[in-house]
Design a protein that fits this description.
Layout: E1 3-5, E2 10-16, E3 23-27, H1 38-44, E4 49-53, H2 70-83, E5 89-94, H3 96-107, E6 112-118, H4 127-140, H5 143-153, H6 156-161, H7 163-174, H8 178-190, E7 204-209, H9 217-226, E8 231-235, H10 241-244, H11 246-258
Parallel strand pairs: 3-4, 3-5, 5-6, 6-7, 7-8
Antiparallel strand pairs: 1-2, 2-4
Length: about 260
């Protein structure tokens, strides 16, 4: 996959699908790579040109000195869009990726057509929780948190029914660069748009997971209630709803983007 050399970071990306179709951009969760969107890509490329990328500090993108901020990650998106000469896109972000989408909708709405906020929140967790996570990774590496993260990412039912998917996802997380992960933990820790999210005017779909303890259905309903005209969908999943119920997730995304 190509690497875009931006001002201070290299970003790995994949742009694929019909060149005359609208662009749908995907933004990954903390600790994941662009491969987390594999379950959606083939089906959605029938209707959209898809753009996915590794967030700064993840995958093959650069691990620059941290801590990072969501604003910094969102400005990477704008720089990548400029590099690819893309004026506007649909944007779909999950968890940290959803927070990136919120920043874009608040600060660069002219670059977005529609926004999909998946398993995310205007503020995720507490400073104490993130400080504990950061210290655990600093002391013990990614394997020290990977089992607990899988328990948040997937429901108990899915962990039993799809152990191979869970195992491969765990390997993806354990392969993350610890310094990049820690820098991105800080970005999520410090992001809080509860006071401003109601000013978003980009057409928005909010997707939540019934069993998501990290970004709860209450968090999703809050976003949908604050953003004028937002549509709310709740899937029978935990945090990585796009993997756990990939068919319904893709159907809901497609339906929203093709609606008037």
């Amino acid at each position: 996959m190509p690497l875009a050399q931006l001002e201070d970071v290299r970003i790995q990306y994949e742009l694929a699908g019909p060149s005359n179709s609208p662009v749908l951009m995907f933004s990954n969760s903390l600790g994941a790579t662009l491969s987390m969107w594999d379950p959606q890509i083939r089906a959605l490329q029938k209707q959209f040109r898809t753009l996915r990328y590794d967030t700064r500090g993840h995958g093959r993108s650069s691990v620059t000195p941290g801590p990072y901020s969501i604003e910094q990650l969102a400005r990477d998106v704008l720089a990548l869009l400029d590099d690819l000469h893309l004026a506007r896109v649909h944007f779909c972000g999950l968890s940290m990726g959803g927070q990136t989408g919120m920043w874009l909708a608040l600060n660069a709405p002219a670059r977005l057509n529609k926004l999909i906020l998946c398993n995310t929140a205007a503020k995720i967790g507490t400073a104490e929780m993130w400080s504990s996570r950061i210290e655990a990774v600093r002391q013990g590496g990614m394997k020290s948190v990977s089992t607990a993260v899988m328990e948040r990412w997937f429901s108990a039912r899915y962990r039993v029914s799809s152990p191979d998917v869970v195992a491969s996802t765990k390997l993806m997380l354990e392969g993350a660069n610890p310094d990049g992960y820690i820098a991105n933990c800080a970005a999520v820790r410090d992001f809080d748009v509860r006071e401003t999210v109601a000013t978003i005017r980009v057409p928005t779909l909010v997707i939540a997971g019934t069993h998501d303890a990290a970004t709860t259905p209450a968090d999703g309903r809050y976003l949908a209630g604050q953003i004028a005209g937002a549509r709310y969908v709740e899937l029978d999943t935990a945090h990585l709803s796009n993997i756990e119920d990939h068919a319904r997730f893709g159907s809901e995304v497609s339906s929203f983007l093709l609606s008037q």
